[in-house]
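Thread title: Can someone regenerate the structure for this chain?

I was given the following input by a collaborator and told the matching structure tokens would be attached. They weren't. Posting the sequence so someone can regenerate them.
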Amino acid sequence: MLGKKFVEPQHSRIFGSLEKIVGKSFVSDNIEELYYYSTDPSAEEPVMPEYVVMPGTVGEIQEIVRLANREKIPITPRVAGLTLSGLSLPIGGGILIDLKRMNKILEVNPHSMYAVVECGVTTGQLKTYLDDNYPDLWFTLPHAPPSVGVISNAIIHGAGQISLKYGISSEMIAGLEVVLPTGELMRTGSIALGKSWFSKYCLPDFIGLFLGWFGATGIITKASIHLWPRPKVRDMFFYKIDDVDDSVDLLMKLIKSEVCDDIYVNSWTGSSIKRYYTPEKPPDMPEIVLDVFISGQKLEEFEVKKQIMLGIVEEALQRGVKIEEFTPPASVKENMLRVPQPLPFMDLRIGGGAEYLGVYMPTEVVGEAYKKGIDIAKKHGFQYLHLIRPFRTGHATGVMYTFPFVKESPDEVERVHKALEEIADMAIEMGGVLWKPAPSLHKQVLEYADPEYVNLIKKIKKLLDPNGIMAPGKWVT
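Best answer:
Regenerated them for you:
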């Protein structure tokens, strides 16, 4: 495994210092526990930390960061480690900081509609709290297990069930509290004035220094996130479409109508039980399954939106587009309307590996990106599984490429890496950007970037982290 190894007496000295900071119950160097944090379902090589520590306060995080600066030890923050792309692996070894103990929901403001949460608060925890105490409010829940961190999903630009209407989760951050790599504490947004977490306006906005960096510029300890009115009426509609270009054309018309909460464009493999073992699409199966979500605060509002949506579908039918509305089994629809949804399309092949590379693209090129992704998957011997989702009324659209694989097979791991590298090249050449790329792809991304942009990234990282202790990913190495 990768990772710097500390030897005696340095190891014992550092371990003793961590015990003094958090107590003996919340630090470990046991090999079994270190192994747990060294891997994830991705194709990235395992990385073993030297220590795992669970702080319970902001002050303890600051002390750990100061210790890391004195000893020149890499540190990696983590909540659930569910990115499926190696972003929480402790690159360089050192100290892995598990933030699960810091799991308080500090405030919910139902009038200005925001919640203030600590770094260890999970999406399932916040959803349950709102369901019990503020049932008229909800937030952008990612389609992921409920153990995913609320803040973690925001800093990787994740999306949820209302991202078509309101944008991805990083756009819903109203304020942050961050332990900088020097151990200093910074607040940004209206809370910088010390009174309220309601907004990031109208002060200098430093929030972007910590979004999209995967934890490489600081440890976010608290965040204010926007909440939204929960609709009283909500339903969904299902369509089968033979051609991906027809699907994208219909998608663009639907999103510009502004009547839909969310839209999924799923490849046929997303609804096939034998998805990873069927080499070719059955001739009687349409290429695309389109799922459209509509809601309203009143039934009358819902019905108006529904009629607009049905009118757009009817126009496509009159142009000769092959569209078939269908009703799935009741259990399927019930699961799809849940927030968050179960993830049946992510069931793994025997072997336990999964890669899930997202690409945010200009909406007009997603059809071409979809088809090129099929070619790349087949070239490397994988069944394709694609998902297209538009965000913020179509200003960007995500294309998600999923590759389950056998982790114990060196051949499959190598083929997965090659497939991801080709998809990354293809997407960037088409004007897209990679969503939460694995550490092995970061260098590839930077090779495309404007040299002055890369230099600026390195200067900001050096300014915030003069000793180079923040280890997440390889974003700036």
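Residues 360 and 475 are 18 Å apart (CA to CA).
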